[in-house]
Amino acid sequence: MPEKNIIAWTAMVKAYLDNDCFDEAYKLFLEMPERNVRSWNIMISGCLRVNRVNEAISLFESMPDRNHVSWTAMVSGLAQNKMIGIARKYFDLMPHKDMAAWTAMISACVDEGHMDEARLIFNLVPEKKVGCWNTMIGGYARNGDVAEALCLFVLMLRSCVRPNETTMTSVLTSCDGMVELIQAHAMVIRLGFEPNTWLTNALITLYSKSGDLCSARLVFELLKSKDVVSWTAMIVSYSNHGHGHHALQVFASMLVSGIKPDEVTFVGLLSACSHAGLVNQGRRLFDSIKGTYNLNPKAEHYSCLVDILSRAGLMDEAMDVVSTIPPSERDEAVLMALLGACRLHGDVVMANSVGEKLLELEPSSSGGYVLLAHTYAAEGQWDEFAQVRKRMKERYLKKNPGYSQIQIKGKNHVFVVGERSHPQIEEIYRLLQQNLQPLMTEMGSTLENMLLVD
Question: Which keywords describe this protein according to UniProt (predicted)?
Fold first, then answer.
C-alpha cells in the first residue's frame, strides 16, 4: 500500500483483534503515526476483551479525546471482567451515561449477587428501557427473590413499559405457585405473545413442577416449532411424575420429528426408566449415548444407570458400572445411588465398601454419612451406626433439616423439621396428634419419633 491513512491503520488493528492476535494489534497500534477516537476505542475494547485491564486503563487515561463509546467500553469491559469497583468508578465519572452503560453496570452487580447495589443504580436510570427492566427482574429471579421480581414486574407495567419474551420468561420462572403461574400465563396470552420456544419451554417445566401434567402437555402440543429443550422438558416432566412409558413415547416422537437428543435428554430418559423399573430400556438408552449419538456419558448418566440396576436388585452389575466410570465423572451422586440401594436391599457388606469410598470422595458432605448411618440402623448394627455419627461430630457435620411445603388459597406454607415459627403451629400439632397418633401407635411408632427425626 503506497500510503497508509488512519482508516487503513485502524482496520488492520481491528483485524488483528478480531483474529485473536492481541500482541500484534497492540504493537501496530503503538506504531500508528496518528490515531482518532475510533482507533483508541477499538484498542481499549480489544484489551478488555482479553482481560488486559492494565493496558486498557493506561490507554484510556492517555486518550486526548473521549466520547460516550469510550466511556461505555471501559465500564462494560471492566464489568465483564468482574472488576465492579473500578467499573463503578468510571461509571460515576461518565459525563453522559447511555443505556448501554447503565445496563452493563446493573448486569455486573446482578451477576455478582449484589442486588441492593444493582437496585440503587437501577433507580437512578432516567428512562428505563425494557432491557434494563429485564436485567433487574431476571436478577431477582435468579437470586431467589421471587417476591421482588414480581413486584418489579408490576412496577414495569405501571410505568407503561411493554414486556417482551425475555421479561415473561423471567416472570414465569419466578412463579412459585399454581395461582401465580396461571396468572402469568394469562398475561402472556393477553399481551399477544405468540407461543414461542423460550416461553413454552418455561411453561412446560413450571406446570410440571406444579403437578399439572395435563397443562404441561397441552402447552407442549400447541408449540409448532419444538426444539430439543421442548422435547426434553416434556420427557423430564413425565419422568419426574413416574410416567416412564409416557416419557419413552415422547422420545420416540422426538426422533421421528428429526430432533437429536442431547445429554440432558438422556438424564430425563434414564431417570424415567429408573422410576418405572425399565431395566432393559435403561441399559439400551445408556449404550446409545456413545454408540448411537456419539456423546460422552456424564456423571448424571452413570448415576441414573446405577440407580436403575440397584433398584432392580442387580447390585453386582451396578458395582461393575461404578468400577468402569472414568475418574473425572465419578462423583457423590453415583455412589449415593448405590449406597441407597444397599440400604434398600439390606446389603451391609457392600454398603460398608461403598460408604468408605463415598466418605473418601466427599469427606465434608453430610449426605454420605447420614445414608451410611441409616443403613446400619436399618440392619440393627448400632455400634457401626454410632461410629459414623461420631465421625460426623468430629468433622462438625450436620444434616440439613428436611422441609415440606403446601399451597392453600394461593399462599405457600413451608414446614421445616424442628422449627415452630408457623403462626398456626400449635393448632397444626393438635390436629396431627388427634388424627395421626392412633395410626402411628397402630404401626408401632409414635408421633414424637416421626416429628423429631433428624
Answer: Repeat
d(CA 11, CA 29): 11
- Find out whether 97 and 126 touch, Cβ atoms under 8 Å: no
- Residue 47 has which C-alpha cell? 484489551
Query: What's the pLDDT at 423?
Result: 74
How far apart, in whole angstroms, are the C-alpha atoms of residue 307 and residue 335? 10
User: Can you give the pLDDT at residue 2?
Assistant: 45
Residue 408 parent element (H or E): strand 403-408
Q: What are phi and psi of 257, to 5 degrees?
A: -75, -10
pTM for the whole structure: 0.63
Can you tell me which residue has the cell 500500500? 1
Torsion of Cα atoms, 57 then 63 then 67 then 73, to 10°: -20
Residue stretches of the chain with pLDDT short of 70: 1-4, 176-179, 194-196, 361-369, 378-379, 388, 391, 394-421, 432, 436-454
| Pairwise CA distance, residues 110 & 98, whole Å | 19
Give tens-digit pLDDT for 225-241.
Answer: 899 999 999 999 999 99
DSSP 345-356: HT-HHHHHHHHH
| Whole-number Cα distances in Å, 258 to 134, 205, 244, 253, 254 | 34, 22, 22, 9, 7
Q: Where are the domains of the chain?
A: 403-454
How is residue 272 written as a grid cell? Answer: 424415567
Q: Nine-digit cell at 26?
A: 497492540
pLDDT at residue 239 in the model: 94
**In this predicted structure, what is the pLDDT of residue 144?**
82
User: For residue 159, what is the enclosing H or E element?
Assistant: none
* Residue 326 three-state SS: coil
Cell of 216: 404441561
State the alpha helices, DSSP H only, in 83-128. Answer: 84-93, 99-111, 115-124
Q: What is the pLDDT of residue 243?
A: 93
Q: Quick one: which of 324, 320, 318, 383 has its CA closest to 344?
A: 318
| Cα(342)–Cα(178) distance, integer angstroms | 37
Strand residues in 51-128 grouped as ranges (E): none
Burial of residue 228 (number of CB atoms within 10 Å: 0-12, 13-18, 19+): middle
Collapsing DSSP to helix, strand or coil, 243 comes out as coil
Q: What is the pLDDT of residues 153-182, one digit of tens each?
A: 889 989 989 988 888 888 887 776 666 777
